[in-house]
Write a structure and sequence with these properties.
The protein is mostly helical. It has helices at about 10-30, 40-55, 65-75, 95, 115-155, 160-165, 165-175, 180-195, 205-220, 230-235, 240-255, 265-275, 280-290, 295-315, 335-355, 365, 375-385, 390-400, 405-425.
Length: about 425
């Protein structure tokens, strides 16, 4: 169809809801032995679904134009952190033409150095299509990695469909071309390598490589920091120093070419953390109660941090002054992988519940863990975040950005109601995230 997706949000929500149900049923059918989905077919259809949207201009988000601008700056030998698009007078004509389409063009880029590498690669490939093609290919690599991970864990291959055929990655990467595809891919790569280090005494290079991939993910987007305690806990305690060394060295190497201007990226990140909001029901409610946006952000940060601390504390049972957080040694080994993945899944779910800014594509990090922990709340939330796009209909027609509390309430209440219904129908009193 040629219809503008921003003007078809109700239809989009309905179709993605149906697609999510069908994907879950496809997984259920294979696990029950009713059918068999070959990995080749799953990957082929994953590619087809994404390619169907590849030639569309991004309609649900304009982030891709910032990606292209940064990438073109880098290809021209310019530092994308040196100036905001509005005052980047040395930008070439192709980059300058993008400025009216960039949101927050008065701010320097917020994206870390590894993201800039992918931006340059996509811009070199040619416009929006080239950028989206790079990210779609990375997303298909994620699907392949998921097969490797589920097989290491002894889980059914069908679980990969919870990501490969899920409408959120198809929409946010195939249609909108979000850089989160690269962050998810590198996070899964760090997980894949980390799971392969649990037997015996792994070599230093392999351990360091896992840290390199994780640092790459974080330096595409900061969000994978949510999974730092879980991923490092997979590494044998006596080898964690090499993992950290690999991550730290990668960070230094990637940041060095952009110094000292790269500090402006942290300034923009500070503006984002202090001021931006979108579809965050918990934040909107607290702000209504407290009358202060800053107090609400602080409360949510403390609450979310406390939950994450509880989730990950089980990963390091041998805490002591001699072996702080069990990072470099200790008497205890690594926790079971499924315990770690459950904590990572819960961390992603918690963050989506408490963040003041809940863009739909943030749900990609939750979807990446659904093949390991297919929780009811996570599956429904990975769909309900799409409801946030409702604001685009009024904005496209009238130019007014009008968010409402009802939409943010529906986004959060849908997974909670689904979880309650699941527990009631199964008569299982144990909470399954």
């Amino acid at each position: 169809t040629t219809a503008d997706l921003a003007l078809c949000v109700p239809e989009l929500a309905g179709l993605t809801a149906l697609a999510t149900v069908l994907v879950v049923f496809a997984v259920f059918a294979e696990e029950r032995g009713w059918c068999r989905w070959s990995p080749a077919f799953v990957l082929l259809m994953a590619a087809v679904f994404r390619m169907m949207l590849l030639f569309r201009n991004p309609e649900l988000s304009d982030d891709l134009y910032r990606y292209l601008f940064d990438g073109l700056m880098l290809l021209d030998g310019l530092n994308p952190y040196a100036a905001s698009p509005l005052v980047a007078f040395s930008a070439g004509p192709e980059a300058a033409a993008l400025v009216p389409r960039i949101n927050h063009a008065d701010l320097s880029t917020i994206y870390p150095p590894m993201a800039q590498v992918f931006f340059a690669l996509g811009a070199h490939g040619g416009g929006a299509f080239g950028m989206k093609l790079v990210l779609v290919l990375l997303d298909l690599v994620s699907c392949v990695l998921l097969y490797g991970i589920v097989r290491k864990l002894g889980l059914p291959d069908a679980r990969v469909m919870l990501y490969a055929w899920h409408p959120l990655p198809i929409l946010e990467i195939g249609a909108s071309g979000h850089i989160d595809a690269a962050a998810v891919c590198l996070t899964l790569l760090a997980l894949y390598v980390g799971l392969g280090l649990r037997a015996g005494a792994p070599g230093r290079i392999r351990v360091s490589l896992a840290g390199v991939f994780f640092a790459g993910a974080v330096l595409v987007k900061w969000i994978p920091l949510l999974f730092f305690p879980g991923l490092i806990s997979l590494i044998p305690p006596g080898r964690r120093g090499f993992w950290i060394a690999g991550a730290g060295l990668t960070g230094l190497i990637l940041f060095f070419p952009f110094l000292p201007e790269a500090a402006s990226g942290f300034d923009t990140l500070g503006v984002y953390l202090a001021n931006w909001e979108f579809s965050g029901f918990a934040f909107r409610t607290l702000r209504l109660i407290t009358g202060s946006g800053q107090a609400s952000r602080l409360i949510l940060a403390l609450a979310g941090g406390g939950i994450l601390l509880i989730l990950y504390a089980r990963m390091f049972p041998g805490l002591s002054w001699r072996y702080p957080f069990g990072l470099f040694g200790g008497r205890t080994g690594s926790p079971p992988p499924m315990q770690v993945l459950g904590a990572c899944y819960a961390a992603a779910l918690t963050w989506l519940m408490v963040t003041p800014t809940l863009h739909p594509w943030y749900g990609l990090y939750l979807v990446a863990f659904l093949p390991f922990v297919p929780g009811t709340a996570g599956i429904v939330l990975s769909w309900s975040v799409i409801l946030g796009y409702r604001v685009l209909m009024d904005y496209r027609l009238s130019g007014l950005w009008l968010e409402d509390s009802l939409t943010s309430f529906l986004i959060i209440s849908a997974p909670l109601l689904a979880l309650a219904a699941s527990c009631f129908l199964s008569r299982n009193r144990s909470l399954k995230y």
